[in-house]
Design brief:
Order of helices and strands: EEEHEHHHH
Distance between the termini: 22 Å
Helix content: 40-55%
Number of helices: 5
CATH class of the largest domain: Alpha Beta
């Protein structure tokens, strides 16, 4: 199965009473936290901000690389940023108008979703998945 996910690997390590976080795929993807939970939450905030800014300014975004190790954690951005990123990647070079029409929305509404200015509904995401010939899968991770 060919999965497209918005989970970015980050190295998290403990040093000098601080949990440091560095994203492997993103420049300026650094943060820290007082404990591991705090570090992961801060990482999600940083990731969401970096990706939202790149989406808003039409800057190319690297796909998350595969990484493994005891100090590697996969971090997800906010659902609004995940949806925008995945839709943008799936759309590739197709005009926004075509996708908007196919899911029954205006171009402006679709643009707002892709620029993280609006949260898509599950129905909008399902229609987009249908347009791209993909399955929409929703899951909870622990």
């Amino acid at each position: 199965m060919n999965k497209l996910q918005a989970l970015y690997p980050a190295r998290i390590w403990y040093e000098d009473n601080v949990y440091y976080v560095q994203f492997l795929d993103l420049e300026n993807g650094f943060t820290f936290g007082e404990n591991l939970t705090d570090a992961k939450e801060m990482a999600a905030d940083v990731l969401s901000g970096l990706l939202a800014s790149a989406l808003a300014h039409n800057v190319p975004i690297p796909l998350p690389q595969k990484a493994q190790g005891e100090d590697i954690y996969f971090i997800a951005p906010t659902i609004k940023v995940q949806a925008a990123l995945l839709l943008r990647l799936m759309r590739a070079n197709l005009p926004q108008e075509k996708i908007a029409e196919a899911i029954g929305e205006t171009k402006q509404t679709y643009q707002e979703i892709e620029q993280t200015q609006a949260v898509p509904t599950l129905l909008q995401l399902q229609k987009a998945a249908d347009v791209f010939g993909k399955d929409l899968v929703i899951e909870f991770r622990g």
